[in-house]
Amino acid sequence: MRTAETPASLPSPVSGATPLGRPGAGLDLFLLAVAVSGISLSAPLIAATAAPALAIAFWRNAMAVGALTPLALTRHRAELRSMGRRNALLAVAAGALLALHFGLWLPSLHMTSVASSTALVTTTPIWTTLLLRLRGHRPPALVWAGTAVAFAGVVLLTGVDLTLSPRALAGDALALAGGMAAAGYVLLGAEVRRTVSTTAYTFVCYTTTAAVLLAACLVTGADLGGGYDGETWLKLALLTVAAQLLGHSLINRVVRGLGPSTTSTAILLETPGAALIAALWLGQTPPAAVYGALAVIMLGLALVVRANTRAAR
């Protein structure tokens, strides 16, 4: 009898197909919605937290590792020991790419406009689809169309006001590279998660991310907490729970079943989600385009899901 944990029941890591008719698909979609809600809190929380960007990225991963350690070392110790060299190296590589994503994108927010940075970093599903193509998969035309439609929704909300100043162009390049790094992170996670549990994978991945970001903070001299007040630490803890444990961890949970194409496209919903949360929490009136952008992104996501469902049949 096959179980949900057996590789044969999973979508191909190359194709990224999404068999929505399989048992548990509805739960995966619900968890994906929770994950997107969690990462949507990221930008408003970072904006409201008085700490350096790299330090924020380090602490959200370090705190997540602290929360996962008791579970990982008690219930998943045997699995960690038997992960195998390949899976362990892929998990470490995914963690390094996640650190690179944070390390490139967060500084770009201070070099170029938030609109340009947001639009360029959310090119992740485009790079995901291209990487799948390089691995031998031929994505259906509907996947390309859905990705383009979803990204158009982000551009509709943020705009892309590229300028010619060297600093702004450098910031745009950092944000674009951050989106590429995120695509690699999603694809490697999908590969490891075929045979490794969410807890074991995220423990290795986040530990690597935290270590790399700690090194970056020490090299750049970022304040790691010497002058933080209680409110800042509380916001860092909330960011860890919402964006890291509920956000990234649930994304790592569902990518095994939904596939990298659908998962990376759904992450585009972070942009309008953050705008709506900022309106409710920070009192920032969302632009009228946020509702239209949300509808456009949802349409693009629906096209990608439909294409991958057809491919899985």
TrEMBL record:
Report the Pfam families cross-referenced here. Answer: EamA
Q: Where are the transmembrane segments?
A: 29-51, 57-76, 88-108, 114-134, 141-162, 168-188, 200-221, 288-305
Per the record, the domain of life is: Bacteria
Residue ranges of the EamA domain?
Answer: 29-158, 170-305
Q: Which keywords has UniProt assigned to this entry?
A: Membrane, Transmembrane, Transmembrane helix
| Family according to the record | Belongs to the EamA transporter family.
The identity of this protein, by name, is DMT family transporter
**Species whose genome carries this gene:** Streptomyces glaucosporus
